[in-house]
Write a structure and sequence with these properties.
Keywords: Calcium, Hydrolase, Metal-binding, Metalloprotease, Protease, Signal, Zinc. Its cofactor is Zn(2+); Ca(2+). Belongs to the peptidase M10A family. This protein is an alpha+beta fold and 530 residues long. It has nine helices and 31 strands.
Length: 530
């Protein structure tokens, strides 16, 4: 392709496949647990650290289950472990805010459906629907005529279902350069020899944009191969990589050519409906052709991003949301999409729903239900042996509380229009009038607070009553108020408004959030372990 002086944005996708099917070996429980942890870290579900908590581990497993459309339990069973042993893309499934990788969410369409195919982050596409490619060189594995035929066939498949015309060119200004290279070869991403990375491609654009590089240390064939056979299907790899060169990312539909898994097949490769929907989104349908949609519809939305939360607790960058018998955590420092979990799984022996909750600085979460409270260590989710116990331990004479907050070690208990403060050294003080201290917070016994929490990252104390909230700074000055769901949208990116519905009623669509993962100038690999 025509070279420019700088690379503004590019996409790199790569296959890394061994040439034999993965084998299974007997593993001990400890071995299996270590393999599971490595897998979760490797693919973005779990942060790489020695101090990972049990709750983080459960959340990681739950997110993995959501991605693979399994029942969300937070526990690895045989089905989950089997998936972890399979060939797959080496690029993380989940990407954190602070990670080097970049993630993009799929935007809802006006119809209320969500695109299931994946396009690149900046929606990069070729400015013209007439795209050209050229060979820089050929591999010695195959006659050049067979290589040309395989690429032409791949180009025809993408052209036939879209508004594109993709043709071979001998000009140095061709959009897409195809070349076979070994090891270090002029871009930031070296190949690794036989049985490693097979190829990589870049999103449309200047410089390396659109180019496809094949690892010439591999053995390519144009014969259809079965799993375990020697050789790599050049036709399949080319069809997939060309999709990236045109602007498509990976799909989470296993049957799609743009899926994260490599499928060896004896049949002629056909584009999936999902692949077609993606390419038509970028380039339109073929002249006189029919517009194709992916056919995939969102799963029923879980009512966890609800209008009213039973309790919200905050600690550092993490927020814990409680709704009926469900809990989910949002952590801006790591991953932004966390699956809801059953309280019975996370806090065994605890309440099945909560009235209030807070987290203390020593990573202990305290749950309140009625006149009883429970304390759990977030590092191992063990119940404090001194609990469950009565809230009278704090000096409270009420039979329940509406909300509780922890601000630098000072607890505040809220009930109806009153609150009490508690220090471990001085005990309970109060009651005091809520409106006497925070004048704009309007509550009563018939309309009490549902949550109160202090968020250190923005130095605000949030008072939540149903779907309303008031935010105060440390000087007890009102700095914000309105619909609480607008706050959750800003704090937690897994909440989204449904088109055509009340904008204040947010829902949680687990599968939507993981369908579009892209990289911009960063390396992606496909790996099978032998």
């Amino acid at each position: 392709m025509a070279r420019t002086s700088s690379i503004l944005m590019f996409f790199l996708s790569s296959f890394a496949l061994t040439e034999t099917a993965p084998h299974y070996r007997h593993v001990t429980t400890d071995d299996a647990q270590e393999q599971i942890k490595i897998w979760l870290v490797k693919y973005g579900y779990l942060r790489h650290s020695e101090d990972v908590t049990s709750l983080e581990h459960i959340n990681a497993i739950a997110n993995m289950q959501s991605f693979y459309k399994l029942p969300i339990t937070g526990v690895v069973g045989s089905e989950e472990y089997f998936i972890m042993q399979q060939p797959r893309c080496g690029f993380p499934d989940m990407v954190g805010k602070g990670d080097a990788w970049n993630a993009v969410q799929v935007a809802p369409r006006a119809s209320g459906r969500v695109r299931r195919f994946s396009i690149n982050r900046e929606r990069q596409r070729w400015s013209s629907n007439f795209v050209t490619y050229r060979f820089i060189n050929f591999t010695s594995d195959l006659p050049s005529s067979q290589q040309s035929e395989a690429v032409e066939k791949a180009a025809q498949k993408w052209s036939a279902v879209s508004g594109l015309t993709i043709s071979k060119s001998s000009s140095s200004t061709a959009d897409i350069d195809l070349s076979f290279n070994r090891q270090t070869h002029g871009d930031p991403f070296s190949f690794d020899g036989r049985s490693g990375i097979l190829a990589h491609a870049f999103f449309p654009g200047g410089g390396l944009g659109g180019d496809i590089h094949f690892d010439d240390d591999e053995f390519f064939t144009t014969e259809r191969i079965n799993p375990g056979a020697v050789g790599t299907d050049f036709t399949y790899v080319t069809l997939h990589e060309l999709g990236h060169s045109l602007g498509l990312d990976h799909s989470n539909i296993p049957e799609a050519v743009m899926s994260t898994t490599f499928v060896a097949t004896t049949a002629d490769i056909q584009l999936h409906r999902d692949d077609i929907a993606g390419i038509q989104f970028l380039y339109g349908a073929p002249p006189g052709g029919t517009v194709v949609t992916s056919g995939e519809v969102d799963p029923p939305a879980e009512p966890i991003c609800a209008k009213v939360y039973d309790a919200v607790a905050a600690t550092g960058a993490a927020l814990f949301f409680f709704h009926e018998n469900r809990l989910f955590q949002a952590n801006d420092a790591f991953v932004s999409h966390i699956q809801p979990l059953s309280l019975e799984v996370v806090f065994p022996g605890g309440p099945t729903s909560v009235d209030a909750a807070f987290v203390s600085g020593d990573s202990v979460v305290t749950l309140f239900k009625g006149s009883t409270y429970w304390k759990y260590d977030l590092n191992n989710l063990q119940l404090d042996p001194s609990t469950p116990s009565s809230i009278s331990d704090f000096g409270l004479s009420t039979t329940s509380i509406d909300a509780v907050s922890n601000t630098f070690g000072r607890l505040s208990f809220f009930k109806d229009n009153l609150y009490w403060t508690y220090f471990s050294t001085t005990g309970l003080a109060g009651p005091f009038s809520i409106q006497g201290t925070w004048s704009q917070v309007t509550v009563s016994s018939s309309s009490p607070l549902t949550s109160v929490f202090y968020r250190q990252s923005d130095d605000r104390m949030y008072f939540v009553r149903g779907s309303e909230y008031w935010a105060y700074n440390s000087q007890r000055q009102l700095v914000d108020s309105g619909n609480f769901n607008t706050v959750t949208q800003n704090l937690c990116r897994w909440c989204q408004a449904r088109p055509g519905s009340d904008s204040s009623q947010l829902t949680f669509a687990p599968k939507v959030l993981l369908t579009s993962i892209v990289i911009s100038g960063l390396f992606q690999s496909w790996i099978i372990t032998g």
